[in-house]
Amino acid sequence: MNNIKNFKWVLLGGIFLILSACSKKEEAAPEFVATNLAPFSVEFDNIVGERTFSINNTGSLYTNAGGEKFSISFLQYFISNIKVATASGQEYTVKQDDSYFLINGADKTTRFAKVNVPEGDYTRLTFTVGVDSLRSTMPVEKRTGILDPAYGGGHDSGGMYWGWQNGYIFFKFEGNSAVISDDQNGDPSGKKQFKYHIGGFGGYNAPTLNNLRTVTVDLKAAGIAKVRKDRQSNVHLFVDLMKVFNGKNAFSIAAHPNVMFGDFSANIANNLSEMFRHDHTEN
Amino acid sequence: MTLFLMGIFILACKKDMVLKDNPVIDGIGKFLGFQKPANFPEPVYNFANNKITKEGFELGRALFYEPRLSRNNTITCGSCHIQSSAFTQHGHDVSHGIDDRLGTRNSPPIMNLAWNKSFMWGGGIYDLDLQPIAPITTHEEMDEKLENVFNKLRQLPKYTEMFKRAFGTEEISTARFMKALSQFMLMCVSSNSKYDKVMRKEGNAVFTAEEQEGYTLFKQKCASCHSEPLFTDGAFRNNGLGPSPINDQGLYLATLISTDKYKFKVPSLRNLRYTAPYMHDGRFLSLGGVLEHYNSEVQATANLDPLLLQGDRRGIALTENDKTKLTAFLSTLNDEEFINNKLLSEQ
Known about the structure:
By secondary structure, chain A is of the alpha+beta class. Chain A has helices spanning 2-26, 133-136, 242-246, 265-272; strands at residues 37-48, 51-52, 62-63, 69-86, 91-93, 100-104, 112-118, 120-129, 161-162, 167-176, 193-199, 213-218, 225-227, 233-240, 258-259, 276-282.
């Protein structure tokens, strides 16, 4: 008797849930009001080609398109200037002070960029990989939190600040590959390390190397973001690190084991914008 | 109109009055803050964003002479920027840092930085408040992490007290630390050489006949880059030095623009008596060596400054007589009060 009663309740509850789920889908987008803010997040889920991302994967190496096997020891990058747009063309740019995120491959809790945007249905997401030139030239008191030059320790650890140019490393990716030589063209320490420190905000007063890249993601195919106050809309992106090597400007680790502030870095910067792929949206 | 002109005169007089209040003498009793010398242009540093106070300056001075800024607590800013050498590292071609490591460039003077638009021989840094990060974190210099520096200072009541006096609370942050250091460095103003006194018509200061002839020559042959009264135009130029063994390409390393190859910042000519050796890599041990470089050794490297090309002749023609006179003039730019100013010394 009891069981049947319980079953009825479960059934009723189930029907109710289905109904409410349907009603959610049919619900019209609320009126766009710039001050009517609700939580929204973008998830930067790192992957490597067809595999999940892991740090120090020395027991199970990744292989790039050139057949070079490698492991990853460090990954960290800046995401900034998040912007969303509705199908009807209404745009919202997240307040600049709240729009800087440092994604650390070794710390899964850092994978979300959590912001507030007006309630609405968004079909397009835009962000910058790196720290824009405006912020890179700001006075020291504006450089706080993850932008503090003291953040993350020094250069050899998690630090992303480039003291010699007042700017930041946008994308720091390190690892090991047996293909790296032990001479000056490779890693003379014999550790067979590759280091990609990509930065360059375009110069203080004269235009110089600009490795900032803006990424625009069309959300229509894999699910638009329905941002409402009573839930958490999350755009789940895959960030494919294999594109660093296999993107439009494919290159070999053996030929370029160290790329920092130099002309070649622009090639890698172009590959970086290919890394981001929209998998789905959780509304 | 008359009123307006009178106003200017009054202002001008007032400035002169302030200048005569010499910080060396009066600084002990009362702190005068940053004083723009009457014969200097407006500074470029944004003082509105970092008002100089006695407490901030004193904190900056303590930090400048604080060995805890280096990894093993051995090196201070003052190690490579020695006041008696006009805040350079006298006798060292390239800077000599932690664990006896050597850098690749000559320690530049900490002098008149309020008028500087950029802060390294090879550019890259355009904000004085962010400059100290470079020497503190550089492997060959202090080789320390900022967070470690702050943590070391936080252990010392001396510093928590000083930060509180300067900024209101004991908090030690990147911004406060950097701004205090800037306050000290901005106060390192060298403006009391004989040249300055002649220009300001102070006392009975006049050039000797030789100095005056040297000054005339200087204006003809040197002043287009070493412009008065700072004796640098702040630009980056290739002055025709042969590339060094490490092939230091100067500004190019910071910009990657090929027309910047071999360009270095034009240094000031003030205080040359105390700042040998000369050039970005300290290759010339004497002023004689520098003058002969301009006379006969200028090389046609990429981006050689056009001012050093007169028709087919490279460099600046200088007779021995010219060199003697120029040297006499340049010696009027030495500022003994600056290198002896107790206010700027380790306390």
